[in-house]
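Good morning,

Attaching, inline, the backbone tokens for the sequence recovery test we're adding to the shared suite. The designed sequence is right after.
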């Protein structure tokens, strides 16, 4: 089966950015979140999990237990890579941890914004739950091979 989007040709950069922002703002959006930790021998141990996200004030917000493997990795290393969409409409986001906020202490804009977009509310959860606010550093988006050349939409935290 062919992809119907493939016949329309590559999207202009402005359209890719608009499509990416629409994906980030859509309700009940999930992402694959990749982090890594150091093994005893110093090698990286990658870890990948699906998590719900919210797009609040040009930041990705995740909610999870700070003591989970992803939480520990992100809090220690301060970086994560996120993947959204399918293989024929993918958005890759390299992020830096901007701040961590205990769910119980979160300002309303984060708590209510996350609950509204992510379609679940972590506030009734455990005492170790946190919101991790991630600043996008690099964003890439493409559908087919004809969009690979122009896939870079953000570099060093600035839209290009």
């Amino acid at each position: 089966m062919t992809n119907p989007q493939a016949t329309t040709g590559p999207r202009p950069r402005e359209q890719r950015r608009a499509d990416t922002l629409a994906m980030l703002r859509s309700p009940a959006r999930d992402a694959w979140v990749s982090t890594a930790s150091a093994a005893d021998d110093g090698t990286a141990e990658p870890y990948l999990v699906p998590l719900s996200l919210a797009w609040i004030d040009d930041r990705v917000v995740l909610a999870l237990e700070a003591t989970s493997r992803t939480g520990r990795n992100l809090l220690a290393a301060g970086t994560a890579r996120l993947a959204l969409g399918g293989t024929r409409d993918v958005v890759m986001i390299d992020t830096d941890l901007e701040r961590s906020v205990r769910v119980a202490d979160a300002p309303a804009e984060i708590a209510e914004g996350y609950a509204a977009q992510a379609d679940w509310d972590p506030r009734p959860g455990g005492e170790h739950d946190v919101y991790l606010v991630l600043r996008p550093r690099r964003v890439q988006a493409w559908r087919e091979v004809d969009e690979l050349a122009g896939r870079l939409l953000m570099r060093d935290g600035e839209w290009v």
